[in-house]
């Protein structure tokens, strides 16, 4: 099904960077990656760098699904607050999950430094503001939990928040560790680099069935061609349920818009140009782009079908415009692009990464919620280690049977 509605900013501003053929003949590989969005691209890059022979397929054009709908705020903060995650998973695993997301931001920075351009990457702080007074008290507890975990975070009262960021709210947390990127451009550059190492990328090719025999897989496609592989990684987001046999995430729609470029007087549209998000659920979130646009998103609702999501988009756009005007009244923002995307939200805010059961060579990377790229970076690392026989204990945090 269509994963997004409207006019997503990233593929339109970048244009058609690269084209990939459909599969026309049988293939063999060490690893078949199903899904050529940002997750599949990160996997292809990491796997090929490890010397593995890789084939990547996607039923759409490369990076035209959820990746194009992403607003690509790179945050270590998980949708589930640390203080709430600790009783779900235990303190050690909860804190480790937060640190893994923080480390992933640095890994994206290092990746973009190696690519033909910076893919719009910039290091940004993250401002998490209280939507109401009750949440202000919660933020004090969250600050304590993050401080105990060794995370760099500052608690701001209402007066300090207004003075430093011009935002009116009861309280906020400010973390210097964050970033932003162009997810479409990053995926395209990573796939091109993987191709340079010998990986093959095929889009408009759907894997219709997987057969496993004696530890090897045969992937049947709608192109009357097959792919044989020792390992298969499913990186198709919530659509992975086709291969998994069950649904692990609740489907949600999120709505977003990008403004026309806004004239900047001091180099940033708001102080420090930080990522902004709130404590309410669903939450409002905002960032900027290199050409001076505001990208804002939120207004999440339950997913039913693409047609209903499409009908909801104009009303959601108007609500986002009003909220942006209230949050940052000094901006004169005119909407240039508006879109919506469907994503999977898990019970604890953690991704699902790994095999369905220990020993399987069919692996999954899904259920990212609001941390798509940071979880994808870690999925590429952990699954490459697993395929190479170097299972990492961090994989246990994201196991499918938790």
From TrEMBL:
It comes from the Bacteria. Residues 30-386 form the FAD dependent oxidoreductase domain. Gene3D superfamilies: D-Amino Acid Oxidase, subunit A, domain 2, FAD/NAD(P)-binding domain. This is FAD-dependent oxidoreductase. It comes from Deinococcus aquaticus.
